[in-house]
Amino acid sequence: MKKFIAAALAASMFTLPAFAAEVKVGFVTTLTTGGAVIGKDMENAVNLASAHMGGKMGELDLNVIFADDGFKPETGKQATDKLVKQDDVDFVTGYIWSHVLLASRKSVLDQGKFLISANAGPSEMAGKLCHENFFSTSWQNDQTPEAMGEVLNQQGVKSLYIMAPNYAAGKDMVAGVERTFKGEIKGKDLTKWGADAQLDFSAELAKAKASGAEGIFVFYPGAAAGAFVKQYQQAGLKDILPLYSVFTIDAISLPKLQAANFESVLGSKTTQQWDPSLKNEQNKRFVTEFKARYGSYPSFYAAQSYDAMFLIKSAVEAVGGDLTNKDGIRAALKTANYDSVRGKYTYGNNNFPIQNFYLREVVKDNDGNWTTRVASTVFENNQDSHAKDCSMN
Amino acid sequence: MDTSLLIIQTLNGIQLGLLLFLVASGLTLIFGILDFVNLAHGSLYMVGAFFCATLTFALGSFPLAVLIALPLTGLVGYGVERFVARKLYAKDHLQHVLGTFGLILVFDTLTHMIWGPQGISIPLPAWLDTQVTLMKDVVFPTYRLLIIVSGLVCAAGLYWLVNHTRLGMLIRAGASNRTMVSALGIDIKTLFALVFAIGAMLAGLAGMLIAPITEAKIGMGNEVIITAFVVIIVGGIGSVKGAFIAAILIGLIDTLGRSFLDDVFKLFMSSSAAETSAPAISAMLIYLLMALILAFRPQGLFPPMVR
């Protein structure tokens, strides 16, 4: 036995240098609770990105460590602490939820590591709390609903009822649509959110209907989306109160809605910075191979995670694999010099993308699957409205 | 505030209350009779929903799926009693809590492994996926009306079972004095297993009824179980009548709070302050009620008569 251990030790000593030449990426997402459906999609996208890179970033081996936030800020922070302190990762990315990201940011940034959000874009981190080592491959929360507010103006909608979950991103979404929408807000409900989120919206939908608004704006990401759309249909609101949503009707909820045949969702409109139908080489490859590998369309969460991995790769390659060169990595990240699936974009002073926003509509594809396609461009090269509160130049 | 909205919200509140009653009645029976704290009761609610979802897609009929999923859920409940709960009866409450909390994790993970993380939407038959006009301006989803009706039927059935049958007599006797019942030669083991299975079926039914509205999803039981505990504490532990009244009360408080509290708050504070504080306060209302009950009437509103 002793001999065996000695031999094993000796063997491990010889192989150790090979292990050292790697780039470690910590990926925090939701792998349990109902939010896991989003986390799974992101995990798939990261694995696909890793396969497309041949498991390497430049000369370095890519090592991705996934961690579960359990849909809770405190668990997400613990998971982040472990990645930063115990696993000593070089980059931390992922983060679906704004409240989880807000709770975790200090754990990463105080240790001098790079933090890249693949989804959450809380207003605080675009403004006062902006940081030179924090980048986003998604959007600032307010931007997508701002685009929707603009669409509502264009379509001549005069009054609106608003529903969103009561947490950091929900409030940003409401603020966003209120900023651009010129009509009257007839009423507003913020509902309970988290692992024990409210999913029965009977009271809110009855209020919305009684308010006499011309449309309803909602933000219900993940599992809540299916629940909302069903109750919206069951309450017979399709013709009385047209639905305008952000981050609600997506590649996560559509297959389920299709399986249960909720046809009222076909033709409904939503805004986004990306769509599977966008025409660029990187996106074509991503969408085709994601579908081939996992059997469904990628969601925007997947697209942004895929982008995050390629953004990191571009920075690692720019410094020739020297991960101690923080300034070089930062400068490379800032140029966004990689093939994003949304097409070319640039970074603003707060390290959030300046990018286009599209109006997408739900359609059947050639195989009869429900998906989205770009209907029009709402904003070109749009920068978020909190950038002015950020002290970086 | 107009009357038709008030009527609709009251119906919504009753519907929520009846669903809570289905979960809480089983919980109160198990807690009251077996003196067993079953945190995993909510898992049976989830299991019922997933069984029903799978069967709906397999059979193409939601009502048929409910009929078959009910005994299956009862069977799972029986299994939980036979292999886990029975070993814990003699231990103290802390061990019940630890044991059944472990069960929650096991059930959640098993569900994740079998059905995946995404949850399942259950399609409704066309005749249920409509609205009924009850009176002028009062339009209500047919399916929610069906939940109210089935909830009331279950409540009536349970009332008959508990108050007018031999089994019910034993259940009531067990709730009052367990030791005496077994001393009189009643097979307490079978009685316990039966109560557990009935409780599981009631919780499962609630899960099946809510699934077409929200969906069958992992962790759905953990949301409802806390409210169900509030219901049985307010109603009086072990009392089915108490659970019924408390469940309706809590359903109404929760729904009406969510619908009208911000309007009430706007009377004496700025509208933006009202919009942010109202959801928080309305989420607290039922716990405030529980705190008041615990302070002034710790035995609950309708405690079963003991000794």
How does this model look, in words?
The complex is a heterodimer of chains A (393) and B (307). By secondary structure, chain A is an alpha/beta fold. Chain A is 41% helix and 21% strand. Chain A folds into two domains: 2-139 and 279-355, Response regulator (Rossmann fold), CATH 3.40.50.2300; 143-272, Rossmann fold, CATH 3.40.50.2300. In chain A, the strands form two sheets. In chain A, strands 7, 8, 9, 10, 11, 12, 13 and 14 form an eight-stranded mixed sheet that branches. In chain A, strands 2-3-1-4-5-6 form a six-stranded mixed sheet, with helices on both faces. In chain A, helix 2 (36-52) crosses helix 11. The longest helix of chain A has 19 residues, at 2-20. The relative contact order of chain A is 0.14. Chain B is mainly alpha-helical. In chain B, 76% of the residues lie in helices and 3% in strands. Chain B has eleven helices and two strands; from the N terminus they run H-H-H-H-E-E-H-H-H-H-H-H-H. Chain B starts with a helix and ends in an 11-residue tail after the last helix. The model of chain B has no long low-confidence stretch (mean pLDDT 90). Chains A and B meet through helix 2, strand 8, helix 8, helix 9 and helix 10 of A and helix 1, helix 9, helix 10 and helix 11 of B.
